[in-house]
Amino acid sequence: MLYVSLQIAFIILTTLIVPILDGIERKIKAKLHSRIGPPILQTWYDIRKLFAKELVLTRTAFPILLVSLVMVGLCILTLLVIPAGSSWTFFSSMSLPLLIVLIASIHSLIIITSIVSDNLYAIIGGFRELTIGIINEIALIIALVLTLINVGLGYSDSQITTGIKVSYISAVILLAISSYVASGRIPFDLGEAEPELASGVLIELSGPVLGTVLYSIILKRFIFASITALALFLPFMRLLNPLLAFILFILLIIAVWIVHAVTAVLLGRSRVDIATRTLICVYIALISLSTIFIGVGL
Amino acid sequence: MKFLKLFVVAKKAGTVTRKYPFEEPLITEEFRGEIKIDPEKCVGCGACTLICPPSALTMRDEGNVRLIRYFVGRCIFCGMCAEVCPTNAITITKEFELATLDIDDLLRDLLHKRVKCRICGRPFLTTKLIKYANKDIPGSDNYADVCPECRSKLSIKNILKYRGDLDV
Amino acid sequence: MKNNDVKTLAKGSDKAVDMVLKLLKEKLSKYNVRISRAVANNLIVDVSRRHLRDVAKIVHNELGAYVRTCVGCDERNKNGCFAVYHIFGLDDYGVNVIVRTLAPANDVKVPSIADIAPGADWCELEFRDLLGINVTGRPVYRLILPEDWPDDLHPLRKDVPYGVRPPPVKREEVTLTELESPGIPVGPYHPALHEPEYFELYVEGETIIDVRYRGFHIHRGIEKLGESKLTYKQIPFIAERICGICGFCHSTCYVMAVEKAAKIEVPERAEFIRAIVLEIERIHSHLLWLGVACHLLGYDAGFMHTWRIREAIMKLAEYLTGSRKTYGINIIGGVRKDINKEKIQNVLKTLDHIEREVKELLDMMLSVPEVKRRLTGTGILTRGEARKLSVVGPVARASGLNRDVRKDYPYLAYKYVSFKVPVYTEGDNLSRTLVRVEEIFESISIIRQLLDRLPSGDIKVEKYEIEPDKVSTASVEAPRGEDIHFLITGKGRPYRWKVRAPTYQNIPALRPMLREQMLADAPITIASIDPCFSCTDRVIVIETRNGKVVSVKRINIVKLSRRRWPQNEVSKALRSS
Amino acid sequence: MSKVNIDSAVKALRKSIWVFHLNSGSCNGCDIEVLDALTPFFDVERFGIKLVASPRHADVMLFTGPVTREVLPKVIKALRAMPRPRMVLAIGSCAVGGGIWYDSYSVIGGFPKLKKILMEEGIIIDRVAFVPGCPARPEAIIYGILVLLGVMKPKSKKEVVTIE
After folding, report:
1. Closest C-alpha among B82, B103, B122, B95 to residue B33
2. Half-sphere exposure at residue A58, Cβ-oriented, CA atoms within 13 angstroms
3. In this complex, which of A198, A268, A274 lies closest to C298 when CB atoms are compared?
4. Interface of B with C in 8-27 (CB under 8 A)
5. Do C92 and C228 belong to one domain?
6. pTM score, two decimals?
7. pLDDT tens per residue, range C225-268
8. Closest Cα in chain A, distance from residue B6 (Å)
9. ipTM for the whole complex
10. Please, which residues have CB within 8 angstroms of residue C7's CB and are 6 or more apart in sequence?
11. Which CATH code, of 3.90.980.10, 3.30.420.40, 1.10.10.10, 3.40.50.12280, is assigned to D3-148?
């Protein structure tokens, strides 16, 4: 029962704090720019305002609204699958494929949103997302599997091993990179690249539709932060009291989010061909390393 | 890895934001803002309206009124008017908070009374300009309240009278 | 003439002009030309229409002169003809060769020289639009005037009054059908361009295969205004507003042209002050560019920090001139504001501070992997293309052409200071960035030297007379390259005043630069010439289709993308990994 | 929209203002000052102001330039794409009064004249604030936005002085 209520608490908490986390991200960015920056609640204000705005129903606005609502739903479902710092109860062997399917569908929905649109920028943006997405999704899935193999792909709590291995570290690095890429931040926010595509996939949206899409994007960022956090946290999870684990897990997610935010400020935007090339090199190297490490039992 | 120096750069600079409007703006003592025309000193000669590049300062004569209009909305804040003003009536202030919701709020009008010509009764120069001219050119009072047209007629008449060609 | 002689020659001096005069007489002896000296370093070659092309060939190809610009002029009330002035610059001598051709009013056409000197392509179309002088032997189209402008109304003709404003015609807008139309106006308003301009990039997948430029959205009719409404004294202020970034270059250029024509001796102190302000403007402009470039590469931290540093320069400019931009201190005969001891101290202090900060920042900025990778090897302009198009400024210098007006056509106080002109040979976006970066430091050193040597004395002369019918030119090295003003004096105001801003000469170079590039690099490549459209457009615009930067129909792009991409990209990436 | 509606809609915007920058043929002076207002020294993001890339997303249009003949149809399109309430901040001498070229052959002459054309096209502008300056300095732009949103009362008033 405790686990169920913790999981529900996790979802409720998440849906409420993500705008604030985004606000913190903007504040961090501003600080690194030597300026004051917006108030922490700014993203919250933005979304609230967008919902109060006139709904301009372009030809494609309605399907996009539907898609974005489904996207928010999917994000919440995904949160359900991520164990909120307590146990494997929800994260059985069935959860892994479920998680993968959910993440893949979130991505394809974003791409659908842009391809449904008539706008050229949105279409180009969509195709860019697709290119990066295909490569990244594969790496993300492999990383998830590798991590779980390392901590002991378990059917129950007892099977989780606690020792830290080299192969575990390399798998977590792979997972951290691919989930960062999946979170759609600079240098990999190619689909929305403002300078050439004028916000790309978002260009045509306005008012409540834009609000929903923006909200689902930050929810998505939270999910990917929590996947990295989960991989880091799994080996220790069993050792802790559920409530403490829950709190620590949330804090860890916030910490990962902040690391993501800082990384994004330090870098510039990549280009679709450079990005794919770099990512493929890095992923192939890391995957083979992890496999070798597992093979030799390091 | 030099790009990590951003932390150093940002830390050294600190937060530089000026919290305008809660703090002072970043203006220097040389800044040229809105101009102010001192109605006491202005004589309505219109020198400023001739030099003003964007015609933000305009002059219009209507009946017995001369309108010197300063339209802040078109002003380029070059300050040439202050340089040419013969009476130093124009000063350059540091005012830049000029935004309004109504464009008419950006008008500054000076209405000068015009003197009626003693002879033909048509208004011509402003009262103050005549006073100003009299101060500088003594002895011009005689013709001060006569418009240029009548004045030339008058002088021709006087010359003719002097030469005795005309019986008056 | 031996090369050595040229090297030791004081550019633009009387001796240099005489040498060019002799050279021209020798080379052009077969043709029926009259060569005469105009004011300062200008030579006028009068040539009939029949020999114009031959003369252009010799001057451009044999003497190696760059096209500076060409100007049309309505001189019907003087000699019953329209005149065309082709201005060539001999950088080695610092002398302008102005080739004048007359076209009688009943047969208004001149042969084109655009195939000989591609740099003259646009200016020929410009006088065709604005003065109705036809150009033969080349494809012609409307370049400058709005599409709904009547065909037979040429605004710069002297018989067209200033106030003429044909009512806008409701254009039959070529809208795309419901399915094809994005329904949202993007370009000419596009986040990569801070001004309304229109580039059509034809893409295949993400690779640009061709470019079409439709510019001249900011044509405000400045030249007409200067020739028919304002007076000599008011024009410096409008010249300054040709461009809000390099405005002081324009006003300096204009006043210099007038001063040359009227032979006004400007006090040395004024020349120093002008040069100081020009260099301050260059620093602000280059920092601004650097910031925008960072932003276009998605590196906002770079943008924010360069602009933070730039703020000190803006404050300095206001402190010295009274305004953050459009300084308004240039007048014919000198400047309006003096620099005192206290100001010198403050300027030096700010410069030290800026130099330190910029160094540190650049070190950081150019080490960001994405910034470095996306600048290197993109947007290449070869030396050959650069020479052919007579490009100017940092664009020319990054492609291996050693051109700098400050050295080639010395003006103001630049002869008293020593500085280096950075030249790179790669011609890519990185070289253009590095040229600008080095220029920031050179400018700082120039200001220090100028302040150190600031002579005492007056800052302006008040009494002067401007004789009509003098032909004069002046040029200034603006942050974006060579800015040139051509002036024929008139009564109370210029008879003809033509402005050729640096971007005007550089935009045609974008085509070779953008081809075969990735779409993602288009914004930074376009920005790498530091385009200033408001300068370029003083006069103009066109465009039929509502703004879309990528003008491949939706269906096609989807098809193209499906065919060529992402599979292609992925396989390429796989191959190279 | 009635006046009351606009006032309440404007109030709702006070904490989150997304702006689109529309250059209608300006000299760049005001445009770089608009950008300057985003940078560390002025940092308008502290008011929740964000520059967006599409007029669809915009609450306030930052309007610069004297409206050249060529951009006129494009400017109209951009303003039409903006959702209501349409608020415009006309920045600089050109946008407010047409600038030096207010009566030139290829210039319409500033926002007030454009507004009349927009009325004929059936595009309603709910509120305009005028920010004089050549170029308008970043502080003046910030002040203008605050005036537009009704946070600050405008200081400028029409002055008429009669001299005897």
Report:
1. B95
2. 25
3. A268
4. 8-10, 13, 16, 26-27
5. no
6. 0.88
7. 777 788 888 889 988 888 888 889 999 999 999 999 999 999 99
8. 7
9. 0.89
10. none
11. 3.40.50.12280
